[in-house]
Structures are given as C-alpha cells and as structure tokens.
Amino acid sequence: MKNKPENQQPRVVLMIALASAVLVLFLLRLVYLQVIEGNHYLEQADNTTSYRFNITAARGEIVDCYGRSLATNTTGYNLVMNNLMLGENDLNGTLKTLVEILQTSGDAWNDATPISSPDADGHYSFTDGDDTSDQNRLAAIKTNLGLQQYATADEVMSAIVAKYELENYEPAWQRILGGIRCQMTSEDYSNYTNFTLATGISDRTVATVKERSLSLGGAEIVETSMRSYPDGTVLPHVLGSVGKILREQWVADDYALRRKGYAMNDLIGRSGLEAVYEDRLRGQDGSLQVVKNSDGVIQSSQVVEKPQPGQTVMLTVDTDFQKEVQAALENRILTLQQTKPVHNGQEANAGAVVVLDVKTGGILATATYPTYDLNQYSATYSDLAAQDPSPLLNRAFNGLYAPGSSFKPAVAAAGLLNGVITPTSTVNCVNPYVYYDYRPTCLQHGHSGPIAVSDALKYSCNIFFYDTGVRTGLETYNAMAQRLGLAVQTGVEVGESTGWLTTPEDDNFTSSLIVQAAIGQANTMVTPVQLATYAATIANKGVRYRTHMVAGFRDTNTGEILETVDPVVEDTIVDNVGAFDAIEQGMIGAAKYTRATSNYPYTIAVKTGSPQRAETYGTGGGRANYNNGVIVAYGPVEDPQIAIAAVVEWSGGGSNIAQIAVDVFNAYFFDQSNSLNSQAAGTLLP
User: Is this model's pTM higher than 0.90 or not?
Assistant: First the structure.
C-alpha cells in the first residue's frame, strides 16, 4: 500500500479545522438559544394563542319529487366584527362608522334590544309587548347590567351608556350603539366568537367597507350561503323558515345547542320542514384555526376541517301540480266572492286543499288560502300576523272544521261492517226524525220515503244517517271514523292538529249530539289532511296508509340516495260484506248529482258537506247559520290514483266548492301529460 503524498496532509488538517469551527459555532448558538435566551423564547411561546372559528356548512336543499329546488342557497355577504382584527381601533367608533355605511345603503343591522329610540324629551320605553322572546331578552339584559327586573327603560339605557362608555355620543347614537353592544354581549362576542353585524348586505355596503378596510379594523366582509326559495309562494307553510338562534333556545337544556356544535349567532330551522329536518339539513361545520402572539400579530390562519353540506330532503310534491292546486283554491274563493249572494258564499275568504297519492299516502299537493311569499316572510311578518283571516295559519294541517255530510261515509261503514244495516236495507225518510225530545229534519233533496245506503249517500239523506248513527252507537261510529283517518294523527311530518270527535265526556254533551254527530256536526272537528286521508282510505277499500310528504334523503355532494320513505300501512279494515262497494256507489251517485262534477269524463267518487258555523244571520224566526263548504273525492274509481279534500270557510256549502275538485282532477289527469299516468309521484331522482 502506497503512502499519501505529503502535499495532501495540510488540506486534510484544514478541512478538519473548518468542520470543527462550524460545529463549535452551532454548539455556541444552541447554548445561546436554549440557555441564555431560553426564557425569552419560552415566554413568547407561552403567549401564543390559538383561536378556532366555525366555517358554516351549506344548508341542504329541499326539492320536489322531480328534484326541482323548493328551498336552496344563494351566495350572499355578511358584515362581521372580528375582535382579533380590531387591534387598537375604538370599537364604538368603528361600529358608528359601519352603521352610517349601512344606513346609506338601506341595510339593516343586528339589534334586537327591545328599547325604543329616545323621544323628544330624551326618554325611552320598552318595546317587548306580548312577545315572549323580547321579554326574555329584556330580562337577560337587565340581569347582565346588574339591574332589578322592575328597572325602567331610562334606567336600563343609563346603565348601558355607562357600561359601554357611550357618554360622548348623542342620545340617538347611544341607543343605536348601546343596542348593538347589548346584542354583541348576548351573542358572546369575544376573541373566540365573531359577531355578525349585518346579514345579506348590499353590493354598495360591500364595496364601501372594502374601500375603507384600512380604517375599519375588525370589520370583515364574509361570503356566506343564504337561504332562498325559488318561488316563495309554493308551500310556504310547509317549508317553514330559518332564523338566528334565540337567546332562550341557546340557554335551553343547559346549552344543548352549543354541545351540538352550534355557535350563538348560527341560523337554525324555526318552523316547518326546515325545523323538523334541521339535523339533516344543517350539515357539518368546518373550522378555521388562527394563531396570534402576545403582541396581537396573527401568526397563521388555516382551515383545519372542511365544512360538509347538509343532506337534500326530497318531497312527494310536484311543484307544477302544487301551483295548479293553489290556483284552483284561490280562484274558487275569489269567484264565490264575486258571484254568490250574501249569506250564501259571498263571504268565502279562507280554506285549504290536500291531494294524496292513493297508493302510497304521499302528499302530491297541499294549499292554504290566504297565503304569503316565504321570501318576504321576515320583512312582512308584522303585517301578516295582523291580518284576518291569518295567512300564517296552515289550514291544511292545523285548521279544524266540522266535516258535515262528508262524515256520512264513516257512519255508513260502521253500520254496514257491524251488521246494523245492509247494502239493501232501508230507512224511511219522513220528517221529522224523533229521538226523545229532539226532532231534526231532512231537506229531502231528490228523495223521500224508504232509502238504502247508496242512495242515502247520493242524496245526502240526513234521516238515514240520524237513524243509522243512533242504532250503530256513537262509540262505534267514532271508532270507525278514526280507523278511516279522522281525528287521529295522519303521520304528516310537519306539525298537525289531531282534532276531536263528539264524545259523552264533552262538557256540553246531550243525547241530541249523538244524532248531530252522525252527520258530522255537534262537537266533531277534523283537519283537511285528515279528510284527504279518509278519502284515500275509502278509495283503498279500508287500507289506510300513513300520510307523508318526504320521499327520501340524498347526499348533496354525490347525489347518492341515502334513505327512501316507503309506504306504511297504518290500518286495514276487513270488509266481507261489500261495505266499501256500497259506499263507493253512493259517492259515484253524489258526483253525478252535484252539478260541477256531474259530467266529469272519468268516474269519480265525491261526498260534499255543508257544516253549519256558529255565526248566524237574520233575525227572529228567520235566523240561520252560515255554512262552510267541504268536499272529499277520489278517482278514477276503476283504479284510484288521487284523493282530494277541500274546505272553504263561509262558502255556503259543499256544492259551492265542488269546482275545486274538478280543477284538481283536471290538473292531474290532463294538464300534466294528458295521461292517467301523468305523475310519478314520489320519484326519487339520482
């Protein structure tokens, strides 16, 4: 082995020396950082704080049976206060400038403090009125200010001015800024929680705030998803509304919403399907992490969890058909007002229609009149709430009405299935019907003398059903009515009234009510959705489906159907005596005997009712009751597709509203595709 040349040895020594010097420098720097400056860097690390903010997930859509949007989202902008970004800026001064910008653009700001602006003498008053939410909010403000609940409005404002250092502002601005500051407090504004000063702001506000961003520290323009309704007049009572979480909701059940991941200023479903399916529609919020050091400098900002949109809720309703049903109801009411005499339909002013798929129990359409535009709901709520009749009442599901003669098929079914009558047995229709000291009569339209059940339904013979009801028994025909769908929960997903039947437990009960209840009067009260369910059950010869309007749920990202709602049979009435055939023949006869439906091109089954209202007109012996109008129908009889129920208040009687059924049948059979298979109701689109 050869020795290295002697001239290479100095190079090796030099390289070793340099490497050693570099190593020594690194060691000295490490000692400096960890020992000499260690406390400084440890303190700096300890003073760095991480903040996490929600990124709101897009709300799921609500769509009709063909996937057309009924409730969707649009992009909008909110004006948000971020305390981390406020820096050295004065919060009150910044808010004043922002409010001036909002005022110029005509935008509203977030202030629900129930205190008026100062009057000419500089005094204030409370504006909580009968509103429970406002009363709770005011109570919370007084508690937060350390005041007794009996404190006056002036005392509350004085405390607000002191707490939020508003002494240098004029009274009007004290109220504006004080109200906003109270709202910020109630929504837990802090380094960890932003405050939404204004939602859905105009482009003008967006541009102005961005232009002045350098002087408006803490003010941010945040792009957001906002709820919108492509046609706010379609199903407003059913779709419902969303709104900010109320203070009482936030604190309820030991802050249950916070444990579910909500922030104080989040939106939540307030009513209708928006509320019922809140958990599915809401989605999963994401999160943004912001790191700030002790000097107030933002060190980093990053999305640590992406938001996931809510599910899509699919309905059994067809938007086009829904619009035609709404038009049929409105047009008939307006026509009655214009063409009918006083006391016989001219007073008609409100009502509802429900249309069911006989084979599934799915709601194809549900209309209420008067109604409103859901897109204008918040802006016009006070006016809507003051109107009479109220547009806010969902008459289809919550309106309670005496069914009148439309109840007679239930009594017929009870009598036939319990062997009290047969399809051919008769009752002698001779006035009056005598039951103890009660002597009601029958109008005997188209008939008199002995009459069997089918003709009794065709001509709506009161005496036949007085007698059948008495002999069958109140308890028995009530039980049958419930099995058919009256005075029970139908299953519809949005809240519904149960109603009630006449019973011996009623405070005003007398034996005469057994007779009156048999023709759908007395104390009996049901809803239009129950009447539609009842009509569908008769069409199905005793098979009652659960009424529903949700067809399923879909993943918003992938379009995958996550769940479908299958038809559910709630009850099956066994008929071995041809009871439903006899009832159907009677209702076919009633359709032919009623002018509006008499020449309908398909075979349809109808039963009208003219229940009396408590209100009367006339004087002395000429006094008479006003009437509502009720109709139940289904068709075509050979293969029933749809069942219809309609009620119109003050309309003078069932024959006056029979045109509604005709218009609905036409819309279904002809307007859709000129086919009996015009709709695939409840079809779930991928």
Answer: no
